[in-house]
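assembly run, all chains below
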Amino acid sequence: MSAGVVLYDWTPDVRCYAVRLGLSLMNMTYETRAADMDLPMGQRPAGLRPGERPPVLVAGSVRLSRPGAIMQFVARQPAVARAWLDPAHEWMILDWLDFGATALDTMAAARDIAFGTTLPVLPPMGALVAALRRMEDHMTARAMEGHDWFASPAPSIADVVLFVVFALTVDLGVERDTCPALRRWARRMRGLPGFMVMPGVPDYA
Amino acid sequence: MKRWQPVSVLSDIRRGEVAGVRIDGREVVLWREDTPTPALHAWEDRCPHRGMRLSFGFVRDDALGCLYHGWQFGGGARCRLIPAHPQVRVPASIHVHAYSVREHAGLAWVSMDGAEDFPVGGTGPDNVQPVRTLHVNASVGALRHVTGIAPDAGIAWHGPVGLAVHEPVAGQGMLHVVRVADAEEVPLPALSRWAERLRDAVESGAVTDRIMNELAMGELA
Ligand code: FES
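ok done. output:
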């Protein structure tokens, strides 16, 4: 199966980073087609359809572009450890996965504004700060119950997407000391086998 | 006047952990040794090599290593290893600025102006456990008022619950919550959610009396 998986990837995109991180942590082999969206249409890889934007994961007849769907697809492959979408905690994992994917969209938009313009315009951070706060309160409660991860006893695909949200908000000026519970959780994420960084974003909590 | 500020609950800075905190707009790295008797340190969050943040670094036994080029600093805040030149004896002049730090009532207390006389005793019950630290988008003045912290006190006790605050930067506050360890009648998860409600009320300018009263009554909603 994995022999046929292709990822259209655009390195600086936050959703692409989430997908790369998930594929790497779940130890999935795949082929990368780099798609630089800053280049004109004609210079993008042939397999990418008009209007499509990375990440796009293609596996046989399956063609996915939403990070949450891609994570689920990969986590359900027979060769992947069940813990990434632990059946005993599936609903909670999917709930936080959706929460994270939505925050990721907000973040992608904020980064477009922050880095796509030379004007000193502050991106609209309210929604992201509110999302981080909900994550912080949740992980504080989890820690009190003796849990290390968002939704299940082991790291899940929800942790992957939420980690990207947390890790990249530092780029947008969110101070780390405002989220002590998330900082401790993020350090654990960094210690997982297969962890990889986002180019251009320092590897720290 | 030299003063001590509560800057973090101790549960956020366990053995072998590093955490950057801001105190009055200044960046400080808290770190705890990874040794059988792990001492806590509070240093200026700035590596003497190229000025990068030491709070991005990592603890190795009784030293803090900088993430960028691996310079290692021992408990005395002196640099003791430069990996690019392992043979070189590092001059004593290469060191990090260290602040006074104490552990008391479940909290890390830092003095930015070098106070040594920590006022132990008379500040509350023994056997206190940390609960959590929360960021509050409100001034410390407002927070101290709401939580009932006297002008010269570092912490306010409401029955078995202790509340303390410090200012990371002007206009913002960090609220530290601790509890007497055996006060099981105030469950930690309920206390944590109570603190969230207090934070949300303070931020939105809502009335906080009712929330504070829950603490006085010992009945957290
Ligand atoms: S900046 Fe710290 S070792 Fe170079």
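Chain A has a mean pLDDT of 89.

The domain at 5-82 of chain A is CATH 3.40.30.10 (Glutaredoxin).

not gonna interpret more than that til we talk
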